[in-house]
Amino acid sequence: MADAAPVLELRGITKRFPGIVANDAVDFDLRVAEVHALLGENGAGKSTLMNVLYGLYHPDEGEILVSGKRARIHSPREAIELGIGMVHQHFMLIPVMTVAENIVLATEPTRAGVLLNYAGAVERVREISDRFGLAVDPNARIENITVGQQQRVEILKALYRGADILILDEPTAVLTPQEAGELFEVIESLKSQGKSIIFISHKLNEVLEIADRISVLRRGKMVETCTREGATEDSLARAMVGREVLLRVDKTPARPAEPLLEVEDVRVLDDRGLEAVRGVSLAVRAGEILGIAGVDGNGQSELIDAITGLRRIDSGRVRVAGREFEHASARQMLDAGIGHIPEDRHRRGLVLDFTLAENIALHDYAEPASSRFGWLFPRRLIERARRLLREFDVRGGAPETRAGALSGGNQQKVVIAREVSRNPRVLLAAQPTRGLDVGAIEYVHRRLVEERDKGRAILLISLELDEILSLADRILVIYEGRIVGEYPPDASEEELGVAMTGGGRREEVAV
Amino acid sequence: MSEQEPERRELAEPDTPERAEHPTGGDYAPSVAARLALFQRAGGILTPLLTAVVAFFVGGLVVLVTTGKNPLRTYEAIFNGSGLNWLFPWVRGEERFLAGLNLQQTLLLTTALILTGLAVAFAFRCGLFNIGGQGQYLAGAIVAVWVGGALSGLPRVAHVVLAIVIGALAGAVLAGIAGLLKATVGAHEVITTIMLNWIVVWIGTYAFGLGGPLQNETLAVPISEDVAETAKLPVFWGDPLLQGLHVGLFVALAALVAFWIVLNRTTLGYEVRAVGFNPEAARYGGINVPRNYFLAMAISGLFAGLAGALDILGWQFRLSVSDVQVSALGFIGIAVALLGRNTAIGVGLSALLFGALLNGTSTRNLDPEVFPPELASNLTLIIQGLVVLFVGADVLVLYLWQLRRRLRGRSAVPPRAEAAT
Amino acid sequence: MLATLLALCALLVACGGEDEAAETAREGGGGEAVRVALVTDIGGLDDKSFNFLANQGLKRAREELGVEGRVLISRSPQDYVPNLSSAAQQGYDLVIAVGFLMSESVATVAPRFPDVDFAIVDFPQSGLKGKPKNVRGLLFKEQEAGYLAGYLAGLSVEDGATVSSVGGQKIPPVDHYIAGYQAGAKAANPSVKTLNGYSQDFVDQAKCKEVALTQISRGSKVVFQVAGGCGLGALDAAKQRDVWGIGVDADQSNLGEHILTSALKKVDVAVFEAIESVQGGTFQGGADSVFDVKSGGVGLGKISATVPQDVADEVEDVERQIADGEIANIPDAVK
Fold it and tell me: Is the ipTM above a cut-off of 0.85?
């Protein structure tokens, strides 16, 4: 394979934005029938490089060769004509149209009469999907198929337009582990039929699983290109971050004390009025991390909302440090000493249009330190924010910076800074590392352990089994709104995995 | 598990912005307001200026095509008609006097438009689209004409202040109803404010109509009683009898300042903005979102009601059924707020622009030989419509702007708008 | 400014020198044309009603009397005072305010310009605050036109039938028509029943159509519209349901064969006569001109050809009786 001629070559690509060099003399090549992974942290320049290749940006320097010939790509259309197809992280499909319509309509509008030949289009789509093992019903509407299937439609769209080079931008970010497995099979099938694939990711394990070669970008520079055989998770992480990274969390055994959060037989309805949490009881003690593992949609979100007062509890009780709450408001729970790192920092954790200072004041803008008689003191907010940003090592923003302008990792640090600085007794961490890269994950994990050691009760809810296993001192598994088992931190992934999917039920946990 | 001490300050966090997705707070469907807010955020001061320029340019084309006259001369006539040439020191004598008269009329309009613009803008900052500025304006006007006419015998200052305050409160109550409905049962404010508009129109039609409770007693026409002398606002520029400029202008300017202070220097404003940007995050932060919906609407209504009261007490002094039915200042307020980006300064400037435009295109200010009266009245509407259209098409303007840069071969693309993760 | 204006006027007059404008001498004016400003109310020029007719009168005066005329359109109540006062300031000899909506503004502005003549359509001078001496009211006895229309309607239907009217708003000029109409119908045939409704609008045709359709479904055989542009919808309803329609203000017989007649209110005549009196130096403020059947200021438009000649003759006879004062005290208020 090493001898195969490159189907694509990028030479010395440099792309500058005001104040930043997003790509700095980057070289990259792709061989025929190869999966070449492009690895890097958020903001390392992966997407910029691919947008240059796809004609969305114009490089300030450097050249692109397709099949050995110099190519000038000024728009996605020209990229498509050169056989380059891109599957974006956010799909560009029309929900109310069928799979076949979406695929066919994506072609150049100059090809008149496609709509008349719908049957032919369906036939052609079916043919391509059979050839590459991309099973999807051409007549199904986009809005009725799963995310994984929608991604296949995007791939089919690219293939339909005659792509030989496929760029997959963070393709697994939206997929369940099972769907990710299916995607890898598709990629293998594409490869075996001579397609070349650029696989963009920041997840080490999947890169090692699927890629033939791996290139690592760091701060706009290509720091390493190696074959899969020569790489390990540690070596790749080091290349990405530029230093040794602790992939495992370093912590001492917990010394649990009195229970600070007690949940008793809580039942909660979801938005549709169906019971999502069906009698959950649990207790989190000071100085321990209780992890709740489970597949997405088994009542975790509703449970968090119930504890934090964001959703009405149908029945049951919540006690914080011995005080009992019934139908408490979010404000009451905050005042009772609950800190909450929400699972979606964009939807809930941050007001992206607020400055960092304003975001940090989100819970206590009305308290005497920030305001008096309804009069706000912005300077005090800024001073406090400046102190916290330094303390929590938030980079890329001053107190006056808009939160939306920060990278995901730094946004999450702002959230953590806010929640931890309120000195809560109980800290709910819901998917605290979702969408973060290696370096940021390490930081968040270390910080959670530190907070545990300060005597807080930490309830960790995560869909990543790895995270639960490396952080939790005790593990509960939630399935269909019920706690189906308690496990020690050294439980095996298999054991937990079975419980998470409803099998191997242990006795109900009495707390 | 490694025993190594983690390096604390060596995190390689790059500083490139993450794609800023617009928050569409979960339980709350992205409202019209939220979508417009997205457009509005994109362009800074440049786009509203471009918007206005493009609107005027196209308006000029319309002049050229329909009349064959030089659009620049037309605009000069409109400019002079607005009285803004009063600001030029070289305009002297009789011309200056006339410019002064025109500027007084322009500023009268500006006064009302600032306030109806703020009524839209304040709600907007809370993520609400207040279409009910018209109804709230009328509520203020109806109540002010009633208080101003009925309670004669009060001392002057007390009477004026009372009429203004009660008029403004009437607007607040009306908008508050829509806010309350939104807060309690989730009724969409666009629907409820439109319906409330009609309720006020018909209340006014009934009240001032022949035989209605507020119809005047001396004339057999559907007009209210006149406001008492004690309730009239003092005129500080121009002839008080010939509709000079009253002190309400300063009230409107003060309202602009108050708008800014409330939003940026109070906890209430903090809450309103948080709810406007991301209601779900506000809820998570412990903010009572429904309460803010109610308060933001009520405060919006306060502004609009104030506009109605000032118009009545400042120059109109009476209200007829047809005034109630044809008045449109509340609706123009929507365009004012949109063009003004829902900021204090922006609303002030765009209110002046719309006031100048409305007054400058009045038939009394345009030479009928150059500009037939039928066309003059429609030109304003055309330019108004174009401005609203182009405000909505901000993205288009932005796109053209970037295309121009791209064609020039410059590489700067604002990363916030396009840079991906 | 005034100087420039005068210069401009002189220029305009000089340019228009070859037409008869210059020849028509104003009393003591020495070759200078009379200048007339017409200020519309918020209905605008194309209201198909009095603003429109007033402009017709001004146009006729320009052509026949050679006066110089200008129209100022009011788009909002805020325009009334500035329009009236700027016209007065710019040296117009006669300023005509169209519509009772401007009564307060005329009362405010007129006393400030005692040298300028003012006229107001549809409002009595005596009703103006301060009763300014330089204002003349131009009034119409709409009830006489309404009476004639009602009389014809009463003759055109069977015993016990229903005739109806659609008013724009409950305002005096509208109610004058309707009161006369109802009285006329009863006079022609005491067994006739009457219906009346208001659309609360002078523009939106749909609203009047709705009111008219309701009346027709309740048995109305003749629909009289008194709602300007809105009323065209009422006439449309009459056409659809195959009953008679009666137009208002202007002659609307051109709308089709279903138009029985039109009740005319000749605002154009009133405006023309006011201008003529200024030119002739006979204009007198402080009083009203009342236009009625006798003076030809109100009356009936073209009567449908399908109406039998004897019926038309009978209506003509009633018209003569009104003119002669044999029929008097026609009611002008709707009960």
Answer: no
